[in-house]
From TrEMBL:
GO terms for biological process: apoptotic process; fatty acid metabolic process. Its EC number is 3.1.2.2. It comes from the Eukaryota. One of its GO terms (cellular component) is mitochondrial intermembrane space. Gene3D superfamilies: Hotdog Thioesterase. Residues 107-175 form the Thioesterase domain. Keywords: Apoptosis, Cell membrane, Cell projection, Cytoplasm, Fatty acid metabolism, Hydrolase, Lipid metabolism, Membrane, Mitochondrion, Mitochondrion inner membrane, Transit peptide. The keyword tRNA-binding does not apply. The keyword Phosphoprotein does not apply. Belongs to the THEM4/THEM5 thioesterase family. It is found in: Cell projection, Ruffle membrane; Cytoplasm; Mitochondrion inner membrane; Mitochondrion intermembrane space. This is Acyl-coenzyme A thioesterase THEM4. The lineage of its organism: Eukaryota, Metazoa, Placozoa, Uniplacotomia, Trichoplacea.
Length: 193
């Protein structure tokens, strides 16, 4: 398989809101009645970032298949996410709310839900820039996040070292007073990528 066909495979599920063909399908990635007021406020702030910020979504159109990031019929009971991408900054910012199905201990978000968001958002970011595969991921869980609590995240490409790219991400409280998790993923860019 050529690098170009790999790029098409990777990117076919990631859609930018400025693509007219996908605008109607991005509705599932917008604020809805299940979101907290905090989550809706951050979504609105992110929507108004201006410049080259554009909303991004993961949409799987293959019949009988779903993307892991939005695989549940009651997605708001797992987690809901909205994210925005800036090409000039190589950065994604977003907001997330975790539902009852992402629970670990009583009332606490499972760390696997946080790692899913870190892994997926980091992967979306690097693959919007180039085709790459994960080499490693490390996460530091800093504080507990409660179910139904809103969080925001910031993901950026920290640096490149030859064919390796290092992507960092932080998940914080809405007011940025608490850090729930920090992640670093290392990606390998294929020789022809």
């Amino acid at each position: 398989m050529s690098v170009n066909s790999k790029r098409i495979q990777v990117r076919k599920h990631v859609k930018l809101a400025n693509d007219e063909n996908w605008k109607c399908k991005l509705d599932i990635w917008k604020a809805n009645e299940s979101w907290s007021d905090d989550c809706k406020t951050v979504f609105q702030e992110l929507s108004n970032l201006g410049d080259d910020w554009v909303q991004v979504a993961v949409i799987c159109e293959d019949p009988g298949h779903r993307c892991y990031f939005n695989c549940h019929d009651e997605q708001d009971k797992v987690f809901t996410v909205a994210m925005f991408y800036s090409k000039s900054r190589n950065r994604i910012r977003g907001v997330a709310q975790f539902g009852q199905y992402s629970q670990s201990a009583s009332g606490v978000v499972h760390t696997g839900a946080l790692s899913t968001i870190i892994d997926t958002v980091s992967g979306i970011l690097i693959n919007l820039v180039c085709v790459a595969v994960t080499i490693s991921m490390s996460i530091r869980y800093k504080q507990i996040l409660l179910i139904e609590e809103s969080a925001q995240f910031n993901c950026w490409i920290e640096r490149t070292e030859g064919r390796k790219a290092i992507v960092k991400m932080v998940i914080t409280s809405i007011d940025k007073g608490r850090t729930f998790a920090e992640g670093e993923t290392v990606w390998m860019i294929p020789r022809n990528g």
